[in-house]
Amino acid sequence: MPMLLEVNASPSMRLDYEQQVSAGVVELVKSPVDEEIKKALVLDTLLLVAPRIRTPSSRAASTAPSTATASSVRQLPSRF
């Protein structure tokens, strides 16, 4: 199975970014793209670290490897 490894010198798990609204005034704006990508990244990472722990939707699926989606993050066991 091919895997992609990204090395980032300054990774950020923030889901928002700074947007300048006027000179010297900045507000934080939530990024839907960051939220979708980063939640899936965290879920995939947890499944790599603890592969026997699966989301409820993947337990109901066949024995095929589960595919992580951003909506699956909400289904993680409460201990995460």
Describe the structure.
The protein is α+β, with helices and mostly antiparallel strands and 80 residues long. The protein has a domain at 31-60 and 68-73. Helix content is 29%, strand content 16%. It contains two helices and two strands. It has a two-stranded antiparallel sheet. A hairpin with a 2-residue loop joins strand 1 and strand 2. The longest helix is centred in the middle third of the chain and has 18 residues, at 32-49. It is elongated and about 50 Å long. 5% of the residues are buried. Mean pLDDT is 75; it is low at 70-74 and 76-80.
Mean pLDDT: 75
Strand order of the largest sheet: 1-2
Number of strands: 2
Report the order of strands and helices. Answer: EEHH
Describe the global form: elongated
What's this model, at a glance?
Helix content is 29%, strand content 16%.
Keywords for this structure?
80 residues, alpha+beta, 2 helices, 16% strand, elongated, disordered C terminus
Secondary structure topology:
Elements: E1 16-22, E2 25-30, H1 32-49, H2 56-60
